[in-house]
Design goal:
The complex is a heterodimer. In chain A, 78% of the residues lie in helices and 1% in strands. By secondary structure, chain A is an all-alpha fold. The chains are: A mainly alpha, B mainly alpha. Chains A and B meet through helix 1, helix 6, helix 7, helix 8 and helix 10 of A and helix 1, helix 2, helix 3, helix 5 and helix 6 of B.
Chain lengths: 324, 307
């Protein structure tokens, strides 16, 4: 168990290191002046002495390994640098945005998992039937659909057309709401983005749950349960589904990376003030430090979820606790 | 934006039936002919879609009613006999844009998948054949690539490299190889233990020659199936990049059509049914075409993988 966690910990540390190193190397190795990447396009038009001062301030005159250590030190202290385009420390900007992304990602992941698990269980139970094959087709269709397109259709139909939901943003800026009214406001703003993200996440969950169920249904203990005269319903939910859920839990956490990717696009369409939208805005403004910080924070989010999954897994599956 | 359609494809469909009915003389396996036919149906549907799209890409200049870059009508004209799918905000014919868009999507899908499969096959071969630390290092690398948030990384790289046709292909190819590498590695592991590979080794054949002549041919068809799946993945990523304004600025792709529709608030105008719907349908059709074909191909070539 300890070895299992240590191995996993090493793996995640490696991922984090790769993400950080990529962020460090990209502005320094790409063609063009690293100063432009770090301080913004305007740095290209500075007078020589100003430029020299900036280069010193960023430590770009030092050897690469020293710059690297300095960069790591900054990250450890929560210093993501400064966005010259926005005139604010990047850490502040990210902290403003992160809760919104977590809201979208968390809720849609939860909904998608519940729906995907139920759907996959039923499909596997009736494998080969018309309903099962139809479900497969539908799942593959939605997995092939671009999420930003779905989002645009949702806006056109439900927000602009029917007027049921607001078109953009996370809350109504003009109103200073509090309590239930504020919660309601936030919920109506989040509804369509969450619906989009849920819809594109369900297929993955469905396919994995269905497969996992099919594998479990082939096990001997299912036949045993049936032979004992356990009702079909109990076999399906009590014996098969509970065991089939184990791999789904892992996928649930792995899917976080996928949903975070989806959120990037969906937030952009809905102008939802999350980290994904921030990435898009940074790309438009050529604000490279912010781009890097968003990538870093999204990587950290995904890794945190994976660590949580590994810590929780032994609680759910006692076999892991015993170890090999 | 699907994470990757290939995820769908690794999911076995036929496996449990095969597992539940082990072939043996005394046991009569329950035949499930209907399902086999259905799977074949999925495959042929995919192949038909692909054939249609490739045909459209090749014949684009002859079958489009207008030059997609030319203003041939009033802005946002609804569909009519002159413009079967109407016009966009600057009066370009949408049907012509769609047909020329096939070229961008298919070529980026093709080249990016080629890059990805070349890397994936190489990594899979080396990791699977040499095992030990080579395997450990390479598979660790695969895990790293799979865990990193995919689209943000693509966006970051595309932003640094600058949007151009070949940069997009490079970025996508450099990030999509991990899953194919894993699948190919498992096949190499199987091949390595086969008698004829052992025999070649015993005869003193050089490692390079064994890999080229005895192992590589055994994984090529699997690489083909993975190639098709990677292409479907690449098409979806290209669409997302173009939609975010990071696509090839000189090309008219389906993603960039939607980018302009989004930027010009298409959903507020009544034009969205012919401005927004068709490009998305084309993306879905192209991705599905590849996914279905790759899915069926993988099942036919390597039923064992369906576990």
């Amino acid at each position: 168990m300890v070895r299992f966690l240590a191995g996993k910990g090493g793996q995640y540390a490696l991922v984090l290191l790769v993400a950080v190193t990529l962020n460090f190397l990209l502005p320094r190795l790409m063609p063009g002046s690293p100063l432009v990447f770090l301080a913004g396009e305007d740095a290209g038009f500075l007078a020589d002495d100003q430029r020299a001062a900036l280069i010193r301030a960023f430590g770009l005159d030092q050897p690469l390994w020293r710059q690297y250590l300095r960069y790591l030190g900054g990250l450890v202290r929560g210093d993501f640098g400064f966005s010259f385009a926005r005139g604010r420390p990047i850490a502040e900007i990210i902290l403003d945005r992160l809760p919104w992304t977590l809201l979208l990602v968390g809720v849609s992941l939860l909904f998608a998992t519940l729906a995907g698990v139920a759907w996959g269980t039923l499909a596997a139970w009736r494998r080969g039937s018309r309903a099962d094959i139809g479900s497969l087709g539908i799942a593959m269709f939605f997995e092939s659909t671009p999420s930003f397109w779905l989002a645009m259709i949702f806006i056109a139909v439900f927000a602009a057309g029917l007027g049921w939901f607001p078109i953009f943003g996370a809350r109504t800026a003009a109103l200073a709401l509090s309590g239930w009214a504020a919660a309601r406001d936030i919920a109506t703003h989040a509804a369509l983005p969450i619906a989009t993200l849920t819809l594109v996440t369900i297929p993955g969950m469905f396919l994995i749950m269905r497969y996992s169920m099919l594998a479990v249904l082939g096990e001997q203990y299912i036949a045993t349960a049936r032979a004992k005269g356990v009702t079909e319903r109990r076999v399906m939910f009590g014996h098969a589904m509970r065991n089939a859920l184990l791999p789904v839990f892992t996928v649930f956490m792995l899917n976080l990376g996928y949903v975070v990717s989806g959120a990037t696009v969906v937030e952009t369409v809905f102008s939802y003030p999350g980290v994904g939208r921030l990435l898009f805005e940074a790309v438009l403004a050529r604000d490279y430090p912010v781009m890097q910080a968003t990538f870093f924070i999204l990587a950290v989010t995904v890794i945190t979820a994976n660590v949580a999954a590994d810590l929780l897994y032994p609680l759910i599956d006692p076999r892991v606790r015993r170890g090999p | 934006m699907a994470p990757d359609p290939s995820e769908a494809v690794e999911i076995p469909v036929g496996a449990p039936a095969a597992a539940a009915a082990p072939a043996g003389p005394e046991r009569v396996a329950t035949p499930r002919p209907r399902r086999r036919v259905r799977l074949g149906f999925i495959g042929s549907l995919g192949a038909a879609l692909l054939a249609l799209l490739i045909g459209a890409a090749v014949l684009a200049p002859w079958i489009t009613p207008y030059d997609p870059e030319a203003t041939t009508g009033a802005p946002l004209e609804p569909p009519s006999r002159r413009h079967p799918l109407g016009t966009n905000d600057i009066g370009q014919d949408i049907l012509s844009e769609l047909i020329f868009g096939v070229r961008i999507s298919l070529s980026i899908g093709f080249f990016a998948a080629a890059v990805a499969i070349t890397i994936g096959t190489l990594v899979g071969l080396l990791a699977g054949y040499f095992g030990r630390w080579v395997d450990t290092v390479l598979m660790r690398l695969v895990d790293v690539v799979l865990v990193l948030p995919f689209l943000p990384l693509v966006i970051l790289l595309a932003a640094y490299l600058g949007p151009s046709f070949w940069n997009i292909i490079l970025v996508i190819g450099l990030l999509v190889w991990a899953r194919p590498a894993r699948v190919i590695r498992s096949q190499v592991l199987l091949l390595r233990s086969l008698d004829y590979v052992d025999a070649a080794r015993a005869l003193g054949v050089s490692t390079g020659r064994i890999l080229r002549r005895h192992v590589l041919p055994g994984v090529l068809s699997l690489s083909l199936a993975q190639f098709i799946l990677a292409a479907s993945n690449a098409i979806l990523i290209e669409a997302s990049l173009s939609f975010l304004g990071l696509g090839d600025p000189t090309a008219k792709s389906w993603g960039s059509m939607l980018y302009y529709a989004q930027v010009r608030s298409a959903f507020l105008s009544g034009a969205w049914p012919w401005w927004v719907l068709p490009p998305g349908m084309m993306i879905t059709a192209a991705v599905l075409g590849f996914t279905f074909t790759g899915f069926a191909l993988e099942g036919i070539l390597y039923p064992r993988l369906r576990r």
